[in-house]
């Protein structure tokens, strides 16, 4: 084996670029994947913002801080 891929043996050419067949096969899923990725990102950012907001409102009055000696 020479270590180089055979031409037209898969979805990538010898320069590791996507072939037309791979682009056609992925086309129906691009929009759905983008919407799902945006939804997951929005949920993550919302949880992060909510957490910072809730923690920022706490006064921590019930936490006892030991005195330095």
UniProtKB/TrEMBL annotation:
PANTHER family: CYTOCHROME C OXIDASE ASSEMBLY FACTOR 3 HOMOLOG, MITOCHONDRIAL, CYTOCHROME C OXIDASE ASSEMBLY FACTOR 3, MITOCHONDRIAL
Organism: Pseudoneurospora amorphoporcata
UniProt entry keywords in alphabetical sequence: Membrane, Mitochondrion, Mitochondrion inner membrane, Transmembrane, Transmembrane helix
Function: Required for assembly of cytochrome c oxidase (complex IV).
UniProt-annotated location(s): Mitochondrion membrane
GO cellular component: mitochondrial inner membrane
Name assigned to this protein: Cytochrome c oxidase assembly factor 3
Record-annotated Cytochrome c oxidase assembly factor 3 mitochondrial coiled-coil domain positions: 22-62
Listed Pfam families: Coa3_cc
Entries under InterPro entries matching the protein: Coa3, Coa3_CC
Key word Cell membrane present: no
Single GO BP term: mitochondrial respiratory chain complex IV assembly
Similarity comment text for this entry: Belongs to the COA3 family.
Assembly and interaction partners: Component of 250-400 kDa complexes called cytochrome oxidase assembly intermediates or COA complexes.
Membrane topology: Single-pass membrane protein
UniProt keyword DNA-binding, yes or no: no
Record field: transmembrane: 29-50
């Amino acid at each position: 084996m020479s270590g180089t891929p055979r031409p037209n043996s898969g979805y990538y050419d010898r320069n590791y670029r996507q072939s037309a067949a791979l682009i056609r096969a992925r086309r129906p899923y691009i929009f759905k994947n983008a919407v799902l990725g945006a939804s997951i990102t929005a949920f993550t950012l919302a949880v992060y913002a909510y957490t910072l907001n809730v923690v920022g409102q706490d006064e921590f009055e019930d936490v006892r801080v030991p005195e330095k000696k």
